[in-house]
Structures are given as structure tokens and as C-alpha cells.
Design goal:
The chain contains 6 helices and 43 strands. The protein is mostly beta strands and about 750 residues long. The protein has a single domain (about 5-735), classed as TonB-dependent receptor, beta-barrel domain (Maltoporin, Chain A), CATH 2.40.170.20.
Length: about 750
């Protein structure tokens, strides 16, 4: 690949910074190298941009587009633009959690790495793979899993076409870097307007990633991870990754989890500079759901440090899944200035999910997809690059629901407790097919010294089809099973248009000013449409300005944004575990985010992250049990106005390292009515210590160091419901790298 491609062309999504050096270690030779409009306007824009770029070659003497000064502390990112770019030049807010930060964390959960990131709120119910993630309020409507956000792994979508993301088949021990792009308009984000979380695993070519890791800790914590790679001749490499994690979490009942992950990766380089990487993975996950507490139960937890009961009769809930997945990513240089980057991917999974009132089973779900992408370097207002492509996906599955077969009732028939999650009578069946057909394009130009401008769009047509037969349903009022709705059919399609115009200007060698105007549209997911077929997609428009600083001994990002949302999809709590979904007329989300990191002395770094959020309903009439309530002017629930994190890290040349972080969530409203506020929590602290010598490393990880008794989530329907934070826990790990 010609050197002139520089850092804007992405050689691999696995390891964009170190691909060449990792190939050398593996014996591979080094190679040279916004408003809503008609969808057809997007297609016309793609044609126009492609026409302007056609046939133009990159001048042979062009320098690399972005050089990092020797005095700059910066990192390379691939998520915001689908091409490599230093984070200071990204024309929007982005957070990069690097390998050093991930290596210092226990990584039982993605929250171990994402906690404290400005604009990101993350909740983990039991420290397993479960997590609720909000980015600037997006994802708020999810009871479990991740909604409204696009999650990628090595450029491959993990998120379903209807915007639901499961984290059960993500091997957190095989994450090298995490990139978080905040807000709408990203050309990765199919049907998800809240932002993108990109998990980047270790490259198959990276011999430095071979290791074995053992861990043991409180509450039955066990961690086993092994990764071994081998070269096959001078052009190919293979690696095998195995991970096992478990906790019994017996500080409260029904709280254990266990996961098994295995992955086989293969990579091959060709004489013409092409690279092909493939992965086959298997995952088995088991997670128990302990349920929330009422006020009296929470008070008892605060006094004793243990949860002994919950506020639901259905306390045998859990999620148990098995997944096979495959992906293959190809990079092919064509000529001097064109790179073809197709991806194909597939996943087959099944799960059992006992929840309130029913037991859900998915015996078969198959997802197939491809992204056919290219990047073309050319001259258009200076050195420019066009990234464009096509997305095709299909998600097809069958599901069944059952009544609980082992319950305790009172004479009225109300279920007051479950004795197990044994399946009873069949309650219903459904067949669901979701399709995505999309095109995307982004043109990047450098019209003058110091300037970089991105203009991109994404147009998707998402079809959601479901044939269901509901024989019975759980009635929250009577606490019994009643006749269901019978046969129903859901057949809806949505045309979603995302667009973004961003600019970045280098004020100096260390300071970059950026601004962005973007629009994204959020698809309703299938269960929301089953509850309310009249739901409209939400439209999010964002205006943002910020400043990024990068130097050898310090770095910071500060941004101010205002997002206007039309038809935001709101979750309405009818009861503690009974929800419905409605469109709010208009929502206004304004905020300020700050991330900073400073070297105080050799090896000692300190930082402060802060988020201010003022998220309000401009126009929202909430319907609760058939009664209308005007919520206009109220704040969105569960979003603290102030969130901050203070941290420090130290590394001594003899191999001793330490990192301490403390997190605070300010007060927030607990419901759409703003009837009560919760104080949040203060100074929940984690500490990581390590000693490394040669291939050996011993680590100690303490979570909730001072054993704070607090709630990570508080909601309200008829009464307050508390989800407690985990007590202090210690994990000791040993790693051998070979």
C-alpha cells in the first residue's frame, strides 16, 4: 500500500496502530504502503461525490495526511469515520479507552473500562456481562441489554437490526481497545441514533497478545483466559482464545453468572498487499437476575450490606444463551488510491429468558449480513478521501413463551411467588424477520492548511415483520394468566436518514477546534411496536462545538452540545415490572462534557472527567393506565445533572503500577412525573495494583474499595424500586505472557 495513504486508510479494524509491527513480530515482511429530506437526496449525493472522485489519482509526492508531532499525546481511532484518524482531528466527540486502561482493569464487564467516561452512564446489576448503557440519555428506555446504541466488534455489528444489543457473547478478556462516538449521524449506526461503541479485539497477527491469565476473588469470582497464536509459513497466522468467568455473587439471592468464550482466528496476507482476517466464535452464558428492592428492603440492605428479598413474585429470572458467530474481513488495495474493504458476518443463537410473568425461549435465531465498503483517496479541495458502501442484513428467528409452571398462589389465583423457572403451558409463539438495506458515504476534504471537513450520510430501510399467536398473557392487575390477543401480524418498514457535517481546525500544534451538525433517526424495536404499533421513529438533531488538546504531558477534550429530539420513544412504567412505550412530542438535551489527563511527574498521571446534563421534555403528554398527564418541562428520569470521575495512575520502571478511580453520580429524577429525586452516590472507588517482571504479572483489583452501600438505579411507578450496587470485592490475578 502506498505510503501516501497515511493514517486515513484503515489496514485492519483489529489493530490499526500496530498492524505492521505485529506482522514483523509474526515473520511477515513489511509492505509499502440537517433536517429531514427525501431519501433520494442521499442517493443523489452519493452519485455526485463518486462522480467528482472518479479517476483522480493521488499525487506521488503527497505527504501523509496527518502526522502526530513528537510532542503530542494522541491515539488513533477508526470508529468515527471508518478510516484511521488521530482523535484530535475527529470532527465530533469521541472517547478512546486504550490498551493500558483495559489491561489495568479486571474486565469482568465492559463497565470496568467505560465507567467514568464523560457522557456515558453504565450500570451493571451483578458484575457479569449484564449492563445498561446510556450515551447522552440514549438507551434510557431499556429494561435490560443496550438500546438505541450501535455496538460493533472489529467493525462487525453486534446490534440487531431493531437496535437491541446483547452483551452475553462478548469476550471482555479479548478487548484491546474501546472507542465511543457520542451522538447521531455516524455512518456505522444502522437504526441507532444515540452513538456507537466499538470493541476492538487483539489481532490474529499480534504475537505479543499470547498469554494465560488466572484470577480468583470474593463472591466466588473465577477468571481463566488463554490466548495462543502461531504462524503458518510467512503469510498466515492463527490464534485460539479461551475465556471462562464466573461469580456466585451470594451477597444477594439469584445473582450468579457464568460465561464460556472460545474463538479461532485466522489471517493471511497476499503479495498484492491484501489482508484477510476471519473468526469463528462460540459462547455459552448463564446469568441470574436478582430483581430490585422496595424501600423497606433497600433500608435493610443499607443496614446489613446484603439483599435478602426483592419486590417481585417472579424471582427466578435469568438469561441463558448459546451463540455461534462468524465474520470475515478483507482489505484489498486496488491501484494507487483505492481500497476495497468488504465484511461478511453471521450469528446463530438461542436463549432461555425467564422474566416477569412469562418464560421466553428462542430456539433459533439466525443473523446474516455484509458491508461492501471502499475507500478512495483523491484530490478534491485538497487531499480528500471518500468512504462509501452498502449494508445488507437479515435477522430471522422463532420464539416461544410459556407460563411459569411452578408457582405459589393465593385463593384469588394471584401468583405471589415462583418456586422455579420450570416451563408450564405454552403462552404463545412468534416468527420474526428483520431486514436492513442501506447505503452510506462520507467525503473528507482538507481545503486549506489546518482544516478538515467531513460530509457524510447514511440511508437505511429497516423492515420489521412478526407473526405472533398469543394464547395467554400475564395480567399485572390481577396477578394471573388471562386469555391473550390471539393471532397478530406486525409488518412495518422505516426509512431512516442519518447525516453529518463536521469541521475541525488546528488552532496550533496542540489545540484543535471542532464543530458538528448531525441528524440521526432511531428505529423502534420489535417488542415496542408489538406494544404500540403507532410508534414513530425518533429524530435526533445535534449541534455541538468543542476543543481538543494534545501534548506530551497533557490531554483534554471539552464539548458543548444541544440535541433536539422529535418523537423520542419513552418507556412508561405502569407497574414495577410492567412497561409500555409512547412517543414524546419534543425533547431538549443540552450538556457539557470534559475529559482531562495530566502528567504530574515522571510516571504519575491524574485526571478529572465531568458531565453536565440538562435533559427535559419540551412537549410530552404521558398516558398511564389510560389517564393523560402533561410532563412538559420535566427532566428525563435516571440522568444525573452532574457526573464526575477523578483518577490517578502511576507506573515505576521496576514494574510496579497502580490506578485509583472514584466516581460520583449526582441527583436525578426517578420518574417522568419528577415526583421524587434520588441523591445518586458519592465517591465509589476502585483500586488496581500490579507488579510486572519479564513475562510475569501479578495484579490485585478492589471494587467499591470503601464498601459504600448505594443504589446504581432507582425508578418509580407506584413505589420506588432500588437496584443496589455491589459491595467491596477483591480479585487477585496472575498473567504469563509468552
Amino acid at each position: 500500500m502506498p505510503a501516501a495513504f497515511g493514517p486515513l486508510i484503515n489496514p485492519t479494524l483489529n489493530n490499526p496502530v500496530n498492524i505492521e509491527s505485529s506482522k514483523r513480530r509474526a515473520g511477515h515482511p513489511r509492505r509499502a504502503g440537517i433536517s429531514r429530506r427525501s431519501p433520494w437526496m442521499g442517493a443523489a449525493a452519493l452519485t455526485l461525490i463518486a462522480g467528482l472522485a472518479h479517476g483522480q489519482e493521488l499525487p506521488a509526492d503527497t505527504e501523509a495526511a496527518a502526522e502526530t508531532p513528537a510532542t503530542s499525546l494522541d491515539t488513533v481511532t477508526v470508529t468515527a469515520t471508518r478510516s484511521e484518524r488521530y482523535s484530535r482531528e475527529v470532527t465530533e466527540s469521541i472517547a478512546v479507552i486504550d490498551e493500558a486502561r483495559i489491561e489495568a482493569a479486571p474486565m469482568f464487564n465492559v463497565s470496568d473500562a467505560l465507567r467514568g467516561t464523560p457522557g456515558v452512564l453504565i450500570e451493571s446489576m451483578n458484575g457479569g456481562y449484564d449492563a445498561r448503557i446510556f450515551i447522552r440519555g440514549a438507551g434510557l428506555k431499556a429494561n435490560y441489554g443496550v438500546r438505541e446504541l450501535m455496538l460493533l466488534r472489529d467493525g462487525v455489528p453486534v446490534t440487531d437490526p431493531d437496535s437491541f444489543t446483547r452483551l452475553d457473547f462478548v469476550d471482555t478478556q479479548d478487548i484491546q481497545r474501546i472507542e465511543v462516538v457520542k451522538g447521531p449521524g455516524n455512518i456505522y449506526a444502522t437504526g441507532s441514533a444515540g452513538g456507537v461503541i466499538h470493541l476492538i479485539s487483539r489481532s490474529v497477527f499480534d504475537r505479543g497478545a499470547d498469554q494465560i491469565k488466572l484470577g480468583i476473588g470474593d463472591y466466588g469470582a473465577r477468571n481463566l483466559h488463554a490466548r495462543i497464536g502461531r504462524d503458518i509459513g510467512s503469510r498466515q497466522a492463527m490464534s485460539l482464545t479461551l475465556s471462562y468467568r464466573e461469580k456466585n455473587n451470594d451477597w444477594r439471592p439469584q445473582n450468579a453468572f457464568e460465561t464460556v468464550n472460545a474463538a479461532l482466528k485466522h489471517g493471511i496476507t497476499f503479495d498484492d498487499g491484501a489482508v484477510l482476517e476471519s473468526e469463528l466464535a462460540y459462547n455459552d452464558a448463564s446469568l441470574e437476575l436478582p430483581g430490585s428492592m422496595n424501600q423497606a428492603q433497600y433500608d435493610e440492605y443499607r443496614r446489613t450490606g446484603e439483599q435478602t428479598d426483592n419486590n417481585t413474585a417472579f424471582d427466578d429470572s435469568g438469561r441463558y444463551s448459546e451463540t455461534w458467530s462468524f465474520n470475515s474481513r478483507y482489505l484489498k488495495p486496488v491501484g494507487a488510491a483505492l481500497v476495497f474493504r468488504p465484511r461478511v458476518y453471521a450469528a446463530y443463537w438461542q436463549h432461555l429468558h425467564p422474566i416477569t410473568g412469562q418464560i421466553s425461549e428462542v430456539p433459533r435465531n439466525l443473523m446474516l449480513g455484509t458491508d461492501l465498503e471502499f475507500a478512495h483517496r483523491h484530490q478534491l479541495l485538497g487531499l480528500s478521501e471518500l468512504v462509501a458502501g452498502v449494508t445488507l442484513r437479515r435477522d430471522d428467528g422463532d420464539s416461544r413463551s410459556y407460563e411459569y409452571g411452578d408457582v405459589q398462589t393465593i385463593p384469588s389465583g394471584r401468583i405471589i411467588a415462583t418456586r422455579s423457572d420450570r416451563r408450564g403451558d405454552l403462552a404463545g409463539t412468534s416468527q420474526t424477520t428483520n431486514d436492513v438495506r442501506g447505503i452510506f458515504a462520507q467525503e473528507t476534504v482538507r481545503p486549506a492548511d489546518g482544516w478538515l471537513i467531513d460530509l457524510g450520510f447514511r440511508l437505511d430501510r429497516i423492515s420489521i415483520n412478526e407473526d405472533a399467536d398469543e394464547r395467554s398473557t400475564y395480567d399485572f392487575v390481577s396477578g394471573t394468566y388471562v386469555d391473550g390477543a390471539g393471532t397478530t401480524r406486525l409488518n412495518q418498514a422505516f426509512d431512516l436518514f442519518n447525516a453529518r457535517l463536521g469541521a475541525n481546525y488546528a488552532l496550533s500544534e496542540t489545540l484543535n477546534l471542532f464543530g458538528v451538525v448531525a441528524q440521526g433517526e432511531q428505529v423502534p424495536y420489535s417488542s415496542e411496536l408489538a406494544d404500540n404499533p403507532a410508534l414513530n421513529p425518533a429524530t435526533v438533531r445535534n449541534v455541538e462545538i468543542g476543543l481538543k488538546g494534545r501534548a506530551r504531558h497533557w490531554a483534554f477534550d471539552i464539548s458543548m452540545f444541544q440535541m433536539k429530539v422529535e418523537d423520542e420513544i419513552i418507556q412508561v412504567l405502569e407497574d414495577v415490572n410492567d412497561t409500555s412505550f409512547q412517543n414524546a412530542g419534543r425533547t431538549d438535551k443540552s450538556g457539557v462534557e470534559l475529559a482531562s489527563n495530566f502528567e504530574l511527574t515522571d510516571g504519575l498521571w491524574a485526571g478529572f472527567n465531568y458531565t453536565y446534563s440538562d435533559f427535559r421534555y419540551d412537549d410530552f403528554v404521558e398516558v398511564v393506565s389510560g389517564t393523560e398527564f402533561d410532563r412538559s418541562g420535566n427532566r428525563l428520569p435516571q440522568i444525573p445533572r452532574h457526573q464526575y470521575s477523578v483518577f490517578a495512575s502511576y507506573r515505576h520502571p521496576i514494574g510496579v503500577s497502580a490506578r485509583v478511580q472514584t466516581d460520583t453520580w449526582g441527583e436525578y429524577e426517578v420518574d417522568n412525573a419528577n415526583s421524587e429525586t434520588f441523591d445518586g452516590y458519592d465517591w465509589v472507588t476502585s483500586l488496581d495494583l500490579a507488579y510486572e517482571t519479564g513475562p510475569h504479572k501479578v495484579s490485585a483489583h478492589a471494587q467499591n474499595l470503601f464498601d459504600e452501600r448505594y443504589a446504581v438505579r432507582v425508578t418509580k411507578s407506584r413505589e420506588l424500586a432500588y437496584t443496589p450496587g455491589a459491595p467491596r470485592s477483591l480479585l487477585i490475578s496472575y498473567r504469563y505472557q509468552f
